Protein: Glutathione reductase
Amino acid sequence: MDFDFDLFVIGGGSGGVRAARVAAGETGAKVGLAEESRMGGTCVIRGCVPKKLMVFASEYAEGMHEAVDYGWDVKIGGFDWTKFRTRLEGELDRLEGVYNRLLEGSGVTVFPQRATVADAHTVRLADGTTKTAKHILIATGGWPSIPEVENGELGISSNEVFHLEELPKRLLVVGGGYIACEMACIFNGLGTEVTQFYRGAQILRGFDGEARGHIAEHMQRHGIDIHCGTNILSMEKVDGGIEVRSTTGDTFTFEEVLFAIGRTPNSAGLGLEEVGVEIGRRGEVVVDQYSQTSVPSIYAIGDVTNRVQLTPVAIREGMAFVDTVFKGNPTAPDHDLIPSAVFTQPEYGTVGLSEEDAREKGPIEVYSTAFRPMHKSFIGRDDRVLMKLIVCADTRRVLGVHIVSDHAGEMIQLAGVAVKMGATKEDFDRTVAVHPTMSEELVTLKTPVRTA
Ligand SMILES: Cc1cc2nc3c(=O)[nH]c(=O)nc-3n(C[C@H](O)[C@H](O)[C@H](O)COP(=O)(O)OP(=O)(O)OC[C@H]3O[C@@H](n4cnc5c(N)ncnc54)[C@H](O)[C@@H]3O)c2cc1C
Structure:
């Protein structure tokens, strides 16, 4: 049977763009891609990239205060949100252009419109036309969840946060996951008064307990008003902002309320169930280890599958899909030991197991140190760095590394290589320290602080 395309990708985000480019560019496949919004998807347009640029912007406040203590004559003025936002928008336009050109250069035919699945080999475009394809790849990502609270529509999500007209004076962040915590730190750094509600007992659920406590304590000390065990009950528009009633019975007024309570896979309304694609309880497209759905010609990668919601993972899944389907080399994306970073202030870099999860698996040794790094202690700052290794007591393998410090994201990328290679505690010990650095502590941790 003749198809219009060998592959039709729905969604031009991290996973979809990579799969389309590699399939077309490296295997000569005829590829079509539909994107209903802006090319680049969440990461480029409303996720990692604008967020990281805002992290950079927000860190200058602390940096300038530190510079003064180091002897610089700095006059600290205000932050010009409009100037920053204009530059940010320019940068996102530039990156979107790069993505479009990369697709064009690989020979991918782009349809800048919404697409849905009509049958196992047919895609319907918003303009009413249909395209047939031997394989269809669903790469539609996810969307921020909004809680069902009274007048919840008064709040915004991470989609809107980068486009605010003005920097809010008082902001409520609802949620305790990594995006919520990052946003709380960003706005705190930019000079906004930040309150954070999280319904659980401690922010950053799922990460290492000691690291979570360390970060929460640091965030609070730097002015973020964290309310754990607290949720939003109702919201009402009032003069000067939004009045929020909390489940703990308190009333607050904020200029903006940002919901960052999680993301839902973008699978609704795509026609997937109608053609027999299995959808899971949380709306995720159910796939096997090769990203194949219950309909053999339809595959899915990235956030829509709700495996690990990270850009490099979506990219890996896209490349594994191309290896499997177009290069004759069945490849299951490897979801084990994925290093990641939380861009709170201070940053958190992590790879492998938390202490809590490692305990469940067998006897462990925990090596951990919290100390004042040189550049902070010199100016009398009390901010501490946390360096922690979780070691299997039987095999001596390092099962987890946790770093809370400036630049922890950069450090964990490299520690991740060692952990992925199966490094033991003794391998870490045999490695000569780089001095004077913070990360040298990772290779000089002598005695376990706990065994379990
Ligand atoms: C605020 C924020 C910060 C983040 N920070 C990080 C980070 O620091 N590091 C990290 O690794 N990850 C981060 N992420 C997560 C990361 O952005 C996602 O994991 C990644 O973008 C997923 O890629 P994807 O290809 O699955 O989907 P997406 O990038 O979401 O792309 C999906 C695309 O599909 C399009 N689409 C949807 N439905 C249709 C349709 N029917 N027809 C046509 N097009 C459609 C959408 O418009 C979108 O462009 C962050 C996310 C957010 C929200």
